Amino acid sequence: MWGVVLALVPAMLVSFWYFSLGALLSIAVAVFTCVAVEYLVAKFILKEEPTLSDGSAVITGILLAFNVPSNLPWWELVIGSLFAIAVVKMSFGGLGKNPFNPALAGRVFMLISFPVDMTSWPLPVQNRFVLVDALTGPTALGTLSEGIKNGETISQLASKLPGYANLMMGNIGGSLGEVSAIALIIGGIYMLFRKIITWHIPVSYLLTVFLFTGVLWLINPERYIDPVFHLLAGGLILGAVFMATDMVTSPMTTKGMLIFGTGCGLLTVLIRVWGSYPEGVSFAILIMNAVTPLINKYVKPKRFGETVKA
Amino acid sequence: MLKTFKKGGVHPHENKLSAAVAVEVLPPPQKVYIPLGQSLGAPAKPLVDKGNDVKVGQLIAKGESFISANVHSSVSGKVVKIDDITDPSGYRRKAVFIDCAGDEWIETIDRSVTIVRECTLSQKEIISKINEMGIVGLGGATFPSHVKLMVPEGKKAEVLIINGVECEPYLTADHRLMLEKGEEILVGITILMKALGVLKAAIGIESNKPDAIAHMQELAKSYKGIDVIALKVKYPQGAEKQLIKAVTGREVPSQKLPIEVGCVVNNVGTAFAVYEAVQKNKPLFERVVTVTGEKLASPSNFMVRVGTPVSELIEKAGGLPEDTGKIISGGPMMGKALNSADIPVMKGTSGILLFPAVESKRMQVQHCIRCARCVSACPMGLEPYLLEREVNAALWEEAENDRVMDCMECGSCQFTCPSGRPLLDYLRLGKNKVGQIIRTRTR
Questions:
Q1: Cβ atoms of B367 and A292 closer than 8 Å
Q2: What ipTM does the predicted assembly reach?
Q3: Judgement on whether residues B270 and B131 belong to the same structural domain of the protein
Q4: What is the CA angle B153-B154-B159, rounded to 5?
Q5: Which among A40, A235, B328, B379 has the fewest CB atoms less than 10 Å away?
Q6: Residue B264's beta-bridge partner residues?
Q7: Could you tell me which chain B residue has the CA closest to the CA of A1?
Q8: How far is B237 from chain A (nearest CA, A)?
Q9: How many percent of chain B have pLDDT more than 70?
Q10: Residue B256's domain spans which residues?
Q11: Greater model confidence, A184 or A127
């Protein structure tokens, strides 16, 4: 699983660049807590040899940090990490047995517990070499959601929303790992190349979001923003590439993976467009995690020799 | 585009160390242990006893059941005893112990090297000849060949498929045989075609043997209805159902035999043995065995008498390397580890592989991370991770519904598992138990 860590490096570097020490500190705190909790639970509660060498706790730590604002108080991140590893992962028996993605469940736990801190997004720092309290501002999706609620049209909002170039590079407000689409896609391509993931979940997820929001946009471009914005903004790419593809919590067959990705896509758009939260990736993936055992039960691989009539 | 099967499969390192080494005919050994059960089905009944003198090629045990094969002496000498011996499967089975003296063959065997192309025997006569000469499938399953050639009532064979795939890493016995005995193999194929009443035959060879493909293609030009088909390198390309799928596009239904889709599959080694049996009157008592291993001084291909102890072959190939951890009969994917070097070569022994100690150990077993690699690697479209859990929980009915009996034990799932889980062990256990349940149900 260290390949996943390597795949996360580009996005990590981008987060250091835009959020400076805050990002570094958040990642360090989350990774340290996750690894420590996993070690302690395995050793003293499960009473088995801790298996930290698989790197899964490190990944959970990094992903958890990626999903929060970089100026989140460190102790909140510690609590989130504790919940992610101790409750979501180890209480089910550890690696491979957890039904939900630990990092996502940890994030949602924090979102509900610390709603204000979890939605105060720092803007990328202007002067990287001075440690100051960064300015905060809404995410692109937050601006959009707020504006629509206030009855503004897309063209009125356009000036407040970041352009595609900034969305691609990451020069926007947001949680620390989700901002740069390019860095995340580079990591995803690396994982595809190393065969750590297959294309089925990310492609079906992104395609569903693109098509669904595309149809909405064609219906009313003043009410619904264009699909490219939906793809690049928020945590969609981070979720589709690194979270939904978590092998433990996603289906076993390629057909099942396509259903899973499509479900994630539909739920994400439903929450983003009509839900009360501006972003729906975490909830969408967690809901589909819950459906995964059902998918595994009913979606079987095509058996050899099944289609031929005897 | 090279043909192959669609679903699953893995790519182990090929390691065909002995591919360029010509087959060396070994002289008869000092003593042989010839097991009575060398085919699928019932073991043969011994016809000789302690103190009898035997010649090379003499019938020493008769296969009396329907699925059973004759056994012939591979050497000349004196029968010492008939006693239990551990065979490659690890079970104690009856074998004829013979001390060798000279090399006297029975007179009926034509020992000349001239190739006899014409076969005047009828369909029935060919099959009874093959039965008489104790021919079994030499690909590894050792199914008696005469039974395979008797097409059941109501079924029709359309195409004979010859398996020259040799998808197991390390093994080169079939490869060498095709290069050195190509003509004989083709005559053998024509005989098999006649026995089955088919006009078409296809030889499937993996593309990692371009010399064998070219050679067989050249030779096949002068034989009607025989095609040579290059196949993509992918394990288990040589599995019967996967080979049929690759060559004909037909899928043998679950739990059925290839004849359901009009196919009969035979190994190139079997085709050669059929040639020798029918045209030269030579019973099956020797075969090509690859003796190989990374640390072995000289990986070789030997023409070996059945019953020769494995230790003798290893000696001929340069002796047992110091740090050998396992001696495997067959290839690394499906072969079985031997518990002694005294175990004899049987009709189904395609290779002897020596694995260094470091490579012989299993990985440490870790949690299943549900990565689904086993599901995508399974060429039968099964879910090994799920079957493992069902077998572990003794849920035999569920395992049956999830088609554990379709498993052919190719080991692709275990090969691909990043957590080092012994999936194949569970699948074998599951097949064993579910098989028993099915048998008691139908009784």
A1: no
A2: 0.86
A3: yes
A4: 95
A5: A40
A6: B160
A7: B418
A8: 14
A9: 100
A10: 123-280
A11: A184
